[in-house]
Specification:
Elements lengths: L5 H6 L5 E3 L8 H9 L3 E7 L3 H10 L6 E5 H4 L4 H7 L5 E5 L4 H9 L3 E6 L2 H10 L3 E5 L5 E3 L4 H12 L4 E4 L5 H9 L4 E4 L1 H4 L8 H9 L5 E4 L1 H6 L8 E5 L2 H6 L3 H4 L3 H14 L22 H18 L8 H4 L3
């Protein structure tokens, strides 16, 4: 069984699986491995460190990959898009901001424009701006997101944008999630947390192990880490991470952080540099329960597709009866 969708046809890939451009975690080795396995890997352009992007692009080797940017950050560094387009990416993904100023430049650079949204209104705006693919991201996702759940958002976005392929993101951690996304009207999935815990991801080994051991019950959406890192994220986007000592100390007390913010940021920077996971974040989402090992990324792509195929086949065992078939004499 081969899962062919509008997404696989548009991107020229074998499997409808994209790896999320996680800032600082989705480097070239991860993106390259996902693409080599038949999906499409995306480097995380994140907060736009040009040297990091160049180094990680080289690490992808000859694999056909893409890149993702935080749109509001790109607004202050628009030249970064031109630098990325010079590498001839398959696609450029824009998240958390208005994509309209960039879609034309992406197309002129020979790439497809993938726009991630968190509301139906934003999906319509992205479609009007010329997005080739729209990612409907539910609040289940690790990293930054908004408030809507994936299960209701994905079909609503699919209905709203017509022929534009929709990709589901948020809470997809195995092949069952891929099968469910296809049933909801998506043409594929964008997966972050599950690829966080793979051999090629740039997360620390201890952080990957925490992802294996923890549960989605232990995640929280909060702005405390952004305050500690000095990132001025616009509302309504908050960061979903595993709970730790830092979130227990400050979540819900954000206003109190302002009084000692300089000290908090200095302490946080030292903890992050040391890899102290009591203070620094493990950025994964509600699919954490589905993370049980740290495989190579390419192996994970194959596993997810096989699981999805099995789940889709299993759907054929359900029997839907007409009302008349069950009616008595």
């Amino acid at each position: 069984m081969t899962i062919r969708t509008a997404l696989t046809e548009l991107l020229g890939i074998e499997h409808p699986v994209l790896s999320a451009p996680m800032a600082g975690v989705a480097g070239g080795a991860l993106a390259g491995a996902v693409s080599q396995a038949g999906g499409l890997g995306l480097i995380g352009g994140g907060y736009i460190d040009g040297d990091w992007i160049e180094r990680e692009w080289a690490a992808a080797g000859n694999a056909r990959i893409g890149i993702g940017f935080i749109t509001w950050r790109l607004d202050g560094m628009p030249a970064a898009l031109d630098a990325a387009l010079a590498h001839r990416p398959a696609a450029v993904m824009l998240s958390f901001g208005d994509p309209a100023p960039y879609v034309g430049r992406i197309h002129d650079g020979g790439a497809l424009a993938i726009c991630q949204v968190q509301t139906v209104q934003a999906a319509r705006a992205a479609a009007e701006a010329g997005a080739d693919v729209i990612v409907a991201q539910g609040a289940d996702a690790g990293g930054h997101g908004a408030s809507r759940g994936t299960f209701a958002l994905v079909p609503a976005v699919a209905d709203a944008v017509g022929a534009v392929p929709v990709v589901a993101a948020g809470g997809v951690g195995d092949g069952r999630g891929l099968a469910a996304a296809l049933s909801l009207g998506a043409t594929g999935v964008l997966v972050g947390s599950r690829f966080y815990a793979t051999g090629e991801a740039l997360a620390r080994d201890a952080a990957k192990q925490r992802a294996v051991e923890e549960s989605g019950d232990r995640t929280v959406q909060s702005s405390v880490f952004d305050r500690a890192r000095g990132f001025d994220w616009p509302a309504p986007f908050r960061l979903r991470t595993l709970r730790n000592a830092f979130t227990e100390r400050w979540h819900g007390r954000e206003a109190e952080m302002d009084g000692t913010l300089e000290e908090i940021r200095a302490d946080y920077a030292r903890a992050a540099e040391a890899g102290d996971l009591a203070e620094a974040p493990v950025v994964v989402g509600e699919a954490t329960d589905l993370i049980r090992d740290v495989p190579p990324a390419g192996e994970l792509v194959g596993r997810m597709v096989r699981e999805a195929e099995a789940a889709l086949r299993a759907g054929g065992r359900f029997i839907v009866e007409e009302e008349s078939d069950r009616a008595g004499p």
